[in-house]
Write a structure and sequence with these properties.
Oligomer: single chain
Structural class: alpha+beta
CATH architecture: Up-down Bundle
Radius of gyration: 28 Å
Largest sheet: 5 strands, antiparallel
Shape: elongated
CATH topology: Butyryl-CoA Dehydrogenase, subunit A, domain 3
Strand content: 5-15%
Strand order of the largest sheet: 4-3-2-1-5
C-alpha cells in the first residue's frame, strides 16, 4: 500500500496549490513533472510540463531523484520480502536464507520510506519559508500544501512501518535444524550404542 501511494505521490501534479485572489475562477497546481490550471466553470484542466531538469529549484530536482529511487528500493524490497515468506517455495527448507531475505526486504522498504519522507518534507519546508518570507509583498500569491504532500507523508510512514515489521519478523523467526542435520543426528545416536558395546566384546 505504501509503495503504491508513493508512486501516486510522484506523478500527481498536486504538490503545490495556488489560489489567485484576483481570479478565483482559476486554480493552479504544480507537481514534480507538470504544472496545471483548472477552471471553476466547465472543469477544464490544462497541464504543461515543467522546464528542463537543471532549471528546476533544488528541492524539486532532489525530489525527482529520491522519489524514483524510492520506487526502485520499494520494488526490490517487496520482491525480497516475498521470497522470504514461508508460503512461497523459493529456497524451501533453507530457513536461514529466508530470514536474510526477509530482513533485506525490510531494510529496502524502510529505505524506500526515508526516500519518500525526505523530499516531501523538504518541499513543504521550502513552501513554509516562502509563505512567511517578509521580503515578498502581501499581494503576491503564495504556494500552499497540496494533497500530494499529505499522501506522500502517509505513504512514507506506511513504508517505515512495513519495513520495521518485516525486520522484526525476520529477527523473531526461529531457525529449526535442516532435514540433513536431523538425519545426521539420528545416525550418530544410532551409532553410540555400538561404540559402547565394542569394548565389552573385545574383553
Amino acid at each position: 500500500l505504501g509503495w503504491v501511494l508513493a508512486c501516486l505521490t510522484t506523478y500527481l501534479p498536486r504538490w503545490k496549490d495556488l489560489n489567485l485572489d484576483l481570479n478565483e475562477l482559476e486554480h493552479w497546481t504544480e507537481g514534480l513533472w507538470q504544472a496545471c490550471v483548472s477552471q471553476e466553470e466547465g472543469g477544464a484542466v490544462q497541464c504543461k510540463d515543467l522546464d528542463s531538469f537543471l532549471a528546476l529549484p533544488a528541492e524539486l530536482r532532489v525530489a525527482r531523484v529520491l522519489m524514483v529511487l524510492s520506487h526502485g528500493l520499494g520494488l526490490l524490497g517487496l520482491l525480497a520480502a516475498g521470497a522470504g515468506l514461508d508460503c512461497l517455495k523459493v529456497a524451501a527448507g533453507r530457513r536461514g536464507l529466508k530470514r536474510r531475505l526477509l530482513a533485506l526486504g525490510g531494510a529496502l522498504v524502510w529505505g524506500s520510506g526515508v526516500a519518500v519522507l525526505v523530499p516531501v518534507s523538504w518541499v513543504a519546508r521550502q513552501m513554509v519559508r516562502d509563505f512567511w518570507d517578509p521580503a515578498v509583498p502581501d499581494i503576491v500569491p503564495r504556494w500552499e500544501f497540496g494533497e500530494a504532500l499529505f499522501l506522500g507523508w502517509f505513504s512514507g510512514f506506511a513504508l517505515l512501518l512495513g519495513g520495521t515489521l518485516l525486520g522484526g519478523a525476520a529477527c523473531t523467526a526461529s531457525t529449526p535444524a535442516t532435514p540433513g542435520r536431523l538425519a545426521e543426528d539420528d545416525v550418530l545416536d544410532a551409532c553410540r550404542p555400538l561404540e559402547m558395546d565394542s569394548p565389552s566384546r573385545k574383553v
